[in-house]
UniProtKB/TrEMBL annotation:
PANTHER family for this protein: METALLO-BETA-LACTAMASE DOMAIN-CONTAINING PROTEIN, UPF0173 METAL-DEPENDENT HYDROLASE MJ1163-RELATED
Organism: Streptomyces spectabilis
Domain Metallo-beta-lactamase: 2-187
Gene3D superfamilies hit by this protein: Ribonuclease Z/Hydroxyacylglutathione hydrolase-like
Protein name: L-ascorbate metabolism protein UlaG (Beta-lactamase superfamily)
Pfam families, alphabetized: Lactamase_B_2 (PF12706)
Listed InterPro entries: Metallo-B-lactamas, RibonucZ/Hydroxyglut_hydro, UPF0173_UPF0282_UlaG_hydrolase
Length: 238
């Protein structure tokens, strides 16, 4: 499975500062999970590189808001909303769609008609991909019991606004959800051009700070801070 693929070194004012670009084999997947319509999460040129026949789940109304999707006739799009459950493949895997607290529009001027989403992948284990989200009261109930949580802990700029998780808020989300394992994501890759000297710690340190905060707020959760290119089997590493 792929989540919000972005296969480029530069996107508008952002450039990739850490990690190699995903290899060509990354474009082959059983399903792609697209959390919301922002261009760094739903990137049409990256989706164009996906193998023919790839299935992609994306927020309801996306095709109306992102005309470029209509050119991607080689992909199989399924628009979803919170509460939907989508079987994937023949192995009994089900993707359950959950809400997220985030501006889901196609910025800068798109209308509010597509929700931001998270996904819970249910198979032999249950994995929560949060997309972009802030804390919300029903988060634990909506996500349910999961084994692994992929939680955003940073962003691509020096300040995180409403609808985002910083390391402390992500640790609070971890305490509410109480998975067995967690992986911090959405930090340390892209950064605005010309801002290397502006609050550089916001680029480098969110992963380490999340590990520290999680140890205090959710000490029973195994946290795996991965470098670019690293992988982990959470059950084996536990």
């Amino acid at each position: 499975m792929l989540t919000d693929p972005l296969f480029v070194r530069r996107l508008a004012h952002l450039r990739r500062r850490r990690g190699a670009l995903p290899p060509p084999e990354a474009a082959v997947a059983d399903v792609v999970l697209l959390s919301h319509l922002h261009a760094d999460h739903l990137h049409v040129p990256s989706l164009a590189r996906l193998a023919p026949g790839t299935r992609a789940l994306l927020p309801r109304g996306a095709a109306r808001s992102v005309p470029g999707l209509r050119r991607l006739s080689h992909l199989r799009f399924t628009e979803v909303e919170p509460g939907d459950e989508v079987p994937v493949g023949d192995g009994g895997v089900v993707v359950r769609v959950v809400p997220a607290l985030h501006d889901g529009r196609r910025l800068p001027v798109g209308p509010h008609r597509s929700p931001a989403l998270g996904y819970v992948v249910q198979g032999a284990a249950r994995t929560y991909f949060a997309g972009d989200t802030g804390l919300f009261d029903a988060m634990a109930d909506e996500v349910g019991a999961v084994d692994v949580a992929l939680l955003p802990v940073g962003g691509w700029g020096p300040y995180l606004g409403h609808g985002h998780l910083d390391p402390a808020r992500a640790a609070e989300a971890l305490a509410r959800i109480a998975p067995r394992s967690a992986v911090p994501v959405h930090y340390g890759t892209y950064w605005p051009i010309g801002m290397d000297a502006v609050r550089p710690h916001e680029f480098h340190t969110p992963g380490d700070e999340f590990v520290r905060q999680a140890a205090r707020r959710a000490p029973d959760v195994a946290v795996h801070r991965l470098a670019h290119g690293e992988s982990v089997r959470p059950e084996a590493a536990r």
